[in-house]
Structure formats: C-alpha cells, structure tokens
Design brief:
heterodimer; A: mainly alpha; two-stranded antiparallel ribbon; two-stranded antiparallel sheet; 71% helix; globular; B: alpha/beta; Rossmann fold; four-stranded antiparallel beta sheet; 10 strands; binds adenosine-5'-triphosphate; binds magnesium ion; branched-chain amino acid transmembrane transporter activity (chain A); transmembrane (chain A); LivM-like (chain A)
C-alpha cells in the first residue's frame, strides 16, 4: 500500500517534470498549444476516470517528504536546461508566483479570506528588498524581512476587512491594491514610476546575478534563482501542508465553511481570519523579495491589479486549496502567454477564454483539493 | 438553592416583532427540560439568545449564577453550553471527523509552532481525538464510526443529525441544547436516536438538556419538565402530564379547546 502510494507519487512527479520541460522548451507555438491540449486531455481523462480525485488523495495522504519530489523535478529541469536564460527565467518566475500562491491558498483556499491585493503584498516584499539591499544585510534575512513587512502592513488592512462582509471586504482589498500602486508612483524616495534598482541576492559574497562557472560547467545566473526559489517554495509548501493537516487547518476550514456554526463551537473566527491573512501575506512578501532580487529592478508597473488577478486565477484554475495544483496552474498562467507571443494581444483573450471554460466545466479547478483524512496520523 | 441555568425576563425583538417576551425559566443540573410551542413561538430564538447568536432586548441569562448575557458565542461555548441547529449547520465538504472534532475546540492545542513542527505530538493528539470521536459515533451507529473519514455530504439526513449531536456531545457540555434533533426521522428512528443520546448522558449524569421537539410521545418519555411558549411568552411550566392538561396549552398548542 505504502509502496504503491510512493510509486504513484513518483509517476505523477515524473509526468509533471516531463510536461513542464516540454512546455518550457517548446519554441513553436503549435507545439505549445499541442502540449496544452495534451495536458487538458489528460486532465479530462483523469477526471472522467475519477483518477484525478484518487491521485489528489494519494498525494494528500502521503508523508510531507513526498513534497521533496518538487525540488527533485525542478533541479532536473534546471540542470538539463542550464544554459537557457529565458527558459530558466520562466521557471524561476513560475516558482516565485507559485510561492505567492501558497500564501493566497492559506488566505483564500483555507480560511476563505479573499485578497485582491496579492500583487501589492508581493510589491511590498520587493520594495523592502530594494531598500534593505543597500545595507549589506545577508540576502536570506532580506527575504524574510520582505515577508515580515508585508505581513505587518497586512495587519493594518485586515481591520477594515474584518469589519465589512463579503463583497465589501473584497472591494477593500482592491482599493488597497490600487492605492499601493498610486502611492509608489508619487513617492520619489521609492523611485516613483521609474522604480528602483535592487541589489541581487548573494551567497558567501558571491552574487547570484553572476553566471555559474564550475570547471567546464557553465550555467545561466537564472539557475541560481531557480534553486533559491525552489528551496523557499519547498519549505513553504511543506509548512503549508502541515498547516492544512493540523487543528489550525480544521479551524480554517470551519471558519470558511460556516463562521456562525464555528463560533458556536468556540472557534475564534476573527483570530483565524487574521492569522490566515498575516501568514499568507508573509509568504507573498517572501516571493516578492526574491522576485525583486532576480529582476534586479522593480517598478510600480510590476505590481498592478491585473497581477493580483493573475495570482488569484492560478489558485482558482488549479483547484482552490490544493497546494499540489499550484505549480501546474502557474505554468499554465505564467508560461503560456510568454510562449504565445506571436498571437500578440490575442493571448489575453485566449487566457480569458481558458479561465471561463475551466470555471464552466470544472468549477472546483483542474485538480480539485482532496478531502483531509487523518489516516496516516492515526496509524502512526 | 441555585440552578445551573436561569433566564430572567429575557426579551428579544426583531424590528416590530416580539420574538421573546420576558421569558423566565430555570434548569437544574442533570435534568431534561422539554421546550414546546407552535411554529414561530420563539423556541429557536431562545437558543440563539442563549448561545450569543442574537442580541437580547432585556433580561438576564445566568449560568451558575454568572451573567452570560451578551457574551460572544465562543465564550458561551467555553462555559459549557453546546447545541444543535434546527436547520443543520455542518461543513459538507469536510470529513465526519473534522466536523465532530471541532466540538473539542477548547481541548485542541492551537499553538502554531507545535502544529507545524512538532508533528509527533500532533499525531498523538489526533490519535486520542480519533479514538474519542470514533467511540462516540459508535454509540449511535457502528456503520457511522466506520465512515469517520468520509465526506459529510455523502451521509444521509439522519446520519447528519447524528453528527450534529455528536459534535455537541463531544465537548462534554454541562448544558446541551437540542433543536428538533429528530426532524425528518420516523417515530422508530426518533426513539432509537433519543435512547442513544440518553446512553451518552448516562456517562455524564450531571449534564442538563433542553430539547425542542414537536413529537409529543418523545416529550412524554424524556422530559422531566416541559415549558410551553406561545408568541414568545411562557404559558405553562410543569411535568408533561400537568402541562398537557392545562386548558391554555390545549388551545394554544394542541389546537383543541
Ligand atoms: N433573525 C431573525 N430576524 C427576524 N425575525 C426572526 C429572526 N429569527 C426568528 N424570527 C422570527 O421570530 C419568531 C420566532 O421564531 P423562532 O424561529 O424562534 O420560532 P420557533 O419557535 O423556533 O418555530 P419553529 O417551530 O417553526 O422552529 C418568528 O416569527 C420568526 O419569523
Ligand atoms: Mg425553531
């Protein structure tokens, strides 16, 4: 039983890695469309045969260590394509957006706290990295600081969000996102509309913005960021997975499903909403800091309302609350438009149609979240 | 002498509607009180006021002599009051276990660090709670105990009622409020269900119950005292036989005169 679960997980990881690799290197846009159609067909077949749900629960009920298949696949792709600047940049971007989506999953997927200002918290992490970069602080600390500043600013926003209900709370987060961008544009110490230069991350005095040169092995500097993002993504993924499989996860779900019913059973609804919002913004802030370091430069136009929507659409398309769905959906949403450059502005249209189709035919996403079962915990 | 719970002149208003009108009643430790009355007479509203779900317009709710009027629902829970809902309030997308275990809120370790990192300890807590929830479910139905990790939406209405009662019981409350727990069951099922609830109570004889039911046979069997509401006002209070003999009750509730 355990062995088959492990084999299944390996098989899923292998197929995922292969498909990701193919989509990433495909030059011809027909090849991209082909790969997408293959992925869509796969998703439909899996759903029809109910295999999708079985796979989701296998992954959900397996040990946290199964998550290490993600960095394994990532490292394989990264080293296989180590000279491809553009491909590695896309891969790193997928991981960074995926990381932000781990935060959004905690907020919206678990506790049901909607956040239309994801890009703003991402930006707060980025600007924190820009400002702290000048002081020679260790990069890892800067990344954590990005998360902490985003979480702290989120604390201010959560108060009006808690005081309003439903759509109004959503409107407040939208307003905050717009406000954040306008604030950046008029604020000259933060570079105004032109933005700021960001010091890249460095490890032991070696800047990650330099390419890798080890004997005869040469690699794009983006490989550094792929590895950095993979590491942070994996840690946050495992922690978020543990969070879901804990009493806190049970409380989050109860708060989302029926806050009144939960409150009658002693659940502190406001506290858990705040917690989810703060933890989520912390993770989004981490992602923003890494993004800024990799880009070497940030401007308000990186953190618009449509970027917030892109982040949300990743978690909704993938399957709300399913951590495993984040990367496939992020590949779809981040890589596809890049690959379909030639059809120009039509790609937005293609993207919009895709979202509508998924929501119409698979309302709980391409890879719906599995039911939480504590079988493994009980057996141990 | 002091009562476990007392309501003193409790009123609730919804706009122009007086849903509860100076209601006073006492509940002693270890007793079962039946609450009856026609539709819209304020029975559910009384439970809502008691559990902090709706505001009172006057009066006092006392638990152990301490005022709990206006407390938030979760604080009422912490003092040992749990309930079921007339229109069931369960989380359909979660498992049976998750739905029931939330009732143990106050004994769950909610520290973030220990939940995330001390997984060995967490697993032990899951085992303990699993055993507890499983045993409670088994009191009601062995079959249900075997479906502890099934999604709630896969259960039929009767099993859902059982889950709601289990969620309220697993907290080991001092005062249990049951709002038409047997709605939708046949008389036989109702009978069996009530027996199961009483079986659980026999382990915890100090627990008091207020039960709202339309099923008169059930009331006769379990309620040591009955309280009759009409238009938010208490119209009778006494043993079942005394209450049904009351001409006012015959007219107001049983519709005969
Ligand atoms: N939240 C509310 N807002 C406005 N009116 C309400 C509200 N809740 C209850 N009412 C009204 O208060 C009155 C009492 O309702 P309540 O639900 O307490 O009756 P009940 O005795 O439980 O009836 P039933 O046997 O039908 O369950 C009804 O007229 C109802 O319409
Ligand atoms: Mg009622």
């Amino acid at each position: 039983m355990k062995l088959t679960n492990l084999t299944t997980s390996f098989a899923v990881a292998a197929i995922g890695t292969l498909l990701t690799g193919v989509i990433l290197v495909a030059e011809n846009q027909w090849a991209v469309i082909g790969a997408l159609l293959a992925a869509a067909a796969l998703s439909i077949v899996l759903a029809r045969l109910k295999i999708g749900m079985v796979l989701a629960s296998v992954l959900n009920e397996s040990s946290a260590w199964v998550a290490l298949l993600i960095p394994l696949g990532g490292v394989i792709i990264g080293f296989a394509l180590h000279e491809e600047d553009f491909v590695l940049m896309m891969l790193a971007t997928v991981l960074i957006y995926g990381l932000a989506c781990v935060g959004l999953t905690i907020q919206f997927g678990y506790a049901g706290v909607i956040n239309f200002a994801g890009a703003a918290f991402f930006g707060i992490g980025g600007y924190t990295a820009a400002l702290l970069g000048e002081w020679g602080i260790p990069s890892l600390l800067i990344i954590v600081a990005g998360g902490m500043v985003a979480a702290a600013i989120g604390c201010i926003l959560i108060l009006p969000v808690l005081r309003t209900k439903g759509h109004y709370a959503a409107l407040i987060t939208i307003a905050f996102g717009l406000l954040f961008r306008s604030f950046l544009e008029v604020n000259h110490t933060l570079g105004g509309p032109q933005g700021l230069k960001v010091e890249g991350a460095s490890v032991a005095g070696h800047s990650l913005l330099d390419g890798i040169q080890l004997g005869s092995f040469q690699a794009s500097f983006y490989l550094n960021y792929v590895l950095l993002a993979l590491g942070v993504f994996t840690i946050c993924f495992i922690l978020a997975r543990n969070l879901e499989k804990s009493w806190i996860g049970v409380n989050f779900d109860a708060v989302r499903e029926d806050p009144i019913g939960a409150s009658v059973f002693g659940v502190n609804v406001a506290y858990w909403r705040i917690m989810a919002f703060v933890i989520g913004n912390f993770v989004i802030g981490l992602a923003g800091a890494i993004f800024a370091m990799m880009q070497n430069f940030i401007a308000p136009s990186n953190f618009t309302f449509s970027d917030s929507l892109i982040m949300l659409s990743i978690i909704v398309l993938g399957g709300l609350g399913n951590l495993w769905a984040i990367l496939p959906a992020a590949i779809l949403v981040v890589v596809m438009p890049e690959k379909l450059q030639e059809i120009g502005e039509f790609r937005i249209l293609v993207f919009a149609v895709l979202v509508v189709l998924v929501l119409r035919f698979r309302p709980s996403g391409l890879f719906p979240r599995a039911l939480r079962k504590f079988r493994r915990e009980v057996a141990q | 002498m002091s009562h476990l719970f007392s309501a003193r002149d409790v009123s609730v208003r919804f706009g122009g509607l007086q849903a509860l009108d100076k209601l006073s009643l006492d509940v002693d430790e270890g007793t079962i009180i039946g609450l009856i009355g026609p539709n819209g007479s304020g029975k559910t509203t009384f439970f809502n006021a008691l559990t902090g779900l709706c505001q009172t317009a006057g009066g006092q709710l006392l638990l152990d002599g301490t005022d709990i009027t206006g407390l938030e629902p979760r604080h009422v829970y912490s003092r040992g009051v749990t309930r079921t809902f007339q229109r069931s309030r369960l989380c359909l997308s979660l498992s049976v276990f998750d739905n029931v275990v939330i009732g143990r809120q106050n004994s769950l370790d909610l520290n973030i660090v220990s939940n995330l990192l001390q997984r060995g300890r967490f697993n032990a807590a899951v085992r303990e709670n699993h055993e507890r929830v499983r045993a409670l479910l088994a009191t009601f139905s062995e079959m249900l105990a075997g479906r502890i990790f099934d999604p709630l939406h896969s259960l039929n209405m009767i099993d859902r009622r059982r889950i709601e009662v289990c969620r309220a019981l697993v907290a080991e409350p001092r005062l249990l409020l049951l709002d038409e727990p047997s709605a939708g069951m046949t008389p036989d099922e109702t009978h069996e269900f009530m027996d199961d609830i009483l079986k659980v109570r026999s382990n915890n004889p100090r627990m008091s119950i207020i039960i709202i039911e339309h099923e008169m046979d059930l009331m006769r069997r379990v309620a040591e005292r009955c309280i009759v509401l009409n238009y938010g006002r208490k119209v009778a209070d006494g043993t079942f036989d005394a209450v049904v003999a009351d001409p006012w009750v015959q007219e107001a509730y049983l519709g005969t005169s």
